[in-house]
């Protein structure tokens, strides 16, 4: 018996080693075409593992697509574009560690990311102190506005988004009492605070305010409380796609028939297309994007054919994709010095690309428009209205 | 609207699901004296097997049977290949076995992460018919979960008390040396305990996949949950594991409903400590 087990263990170890070797060989880097100029190195700080990877990976892929295109057409002033990836795991600690590594070990001057508010907020002071330019495609927490002079984002702040959703619920949907179900993370709580404050300022009442931890699998008690609160509408503010799905499964199981309005997790096209019945009817919002725009539709077509999936959070992905072209223009204009680039970014006005029109305000936030959308029974999104934050 | 019926339903579903896993965990602890924390990984593993079988287009019944069988085999294999090594003539290397169990848990969790990715996977809805019980809503699936979990746990208890082999297992649990002297095959008994625990985890994994969503990171949360519950109830006792699960779930859900969901794990932890101070061997534990 024991001998047999030893053999089995030994054999599986050898097999594992062979597989590992084969994989290592397969993923060995292909020889790159030689260019004489030094490459331009950009750090990518994104959640590549954990729940946040559900959007970190698509954003990473969008960056890779733009990198490939730029390098194929001669790079930036003849310099190739190179990425160094760090995993922020959508957590503060990992975000800070990743920023430290990029700035002090890799000597990076430009960081794209993080994707989540938690990792971005943790990395921002480190970047600011080292005068490293950081630009996020998707971190929306209101706190990032004041995170520093070198901190930008091509996404709008939730200070606008939460308020617009609250106004839509109050004025257009005529809702007067709301319940909130939110996850305990920087991003989700930021939205919860803004929504709650705005809805009450308008004259509505928040009759239940329930939260859950990211590791919770059972939200039944929170849902039961909300069901009995008499709310006309539930504002859902999860952090990630897995928790969004969990919420919907358990709301359905308890036959909650209250109108739902959600944060931008619920525009995840891939997620809603897979289970349209689960998400149909949710009203949600995202940065306004024109899907008919030729640059945008070219991006979507190329992404779908290259990765064989629907773009999940299209607005964020387009932000990252366009961001690289923005920097290409910036570097061509003022060179790759972080401080000069920073000053240049503040002058960007109505810059047009796949992400739409881009203007930065004095905090380095994107001034933008929002679209209110509704999930349809066939899993597509219908645009209900387009709103500008005041 | 009356809250209480739904509240009870909300407790019963997770309590019986986790309770069944805790029963297996308890049996292993008693028979082998090792804390089989990797069981949390086995639950998720079984769920992912079901998910894969659906992707491969297998019929439901076949997918479920295959998932449970493979999980049972892996659990048994882990036991005989790894944990059996920490079994010595008169004692058990508890420290090493706990480290090994944790390592296996991490291994399973990260294996699932590597293979299936970090996003959530869900198995299409089945037995989705809703029933109203008073003011509570229950789905067919949830009824199946509660009934099957209770039934299976009951059968384990019956097996331990009414069959010859079950009695032999209890004898090993009480005093392995004496059991060996009267001719009970210790290795066989322990092997059976590993397989039984994995079998229960396999069933729980199926239910978990159907009722919740599968995320690899939940494996360790599951392990802690099961560990707490069986310790609270008194390790080694089938009714203890179920009672521990029920008590912990009640505390968590009541806190979430009437105080704040933020504190539900805190209440649970405080209760475990309080109960253990009052009865160090758990509610149904055997005093030594």
What does this structure look like?
- The complex is a heterodimer of chains A (390) and B (288).
- Chain A has 390 residues and is of the alpha/beta class.
- Chain A contains 13 helices and 14 strands.
- Chain A folds into two domains: 40-157 and 291-368, Response regulator (Rossmann fold, 3-Layer(aba) Sandwich); 159-287 and 371-387, Response regulator (Rossmann fold, 3-Layer(aba) Sandwich), CATH 3.40.50.2300.
- Chain A has a five-stranded parallel β-sheet with strand order 2-1-3-4-5, with helices on both faces. A four-stranded parallel β-sheet of chain A has the order 7-6-8-9, sandwiched between helices. In chain A, strands 10-13-14 form a three-stranded antiparallel β-sheet, covered by helices on one side.
- The longest helix of chain A has 25 residues, at 2-26.
- Chain A is globular, with a radius of gyration of 22 Å.
- The N and C termini of chain A lie far apart (75 Å).
- The relative contact order of chain A is 0.12.
- Mean pLDDT of chain A is 87; it is low at 28-34.
- With 288 residues, chain B is mainly alpha-helical.
- Chain B has helices spanning 4-32, 39-55, 60-81, 94-116, 140-162, 164-174, 176-181, 186-211, 218-233, 238-259, 264-278; strands spanning 130-133, 136-139.
- In chain B, a hairpin with a 2-residue loop joins strand 1 (130-133) and strand 2.
- The chains are: A alpha/beta (390), B mainly alpha (288).
- Chains A and B meet through helix 1, strand 7, helix 7 and helix 8 of A and helix 1 and helix 10 of B.
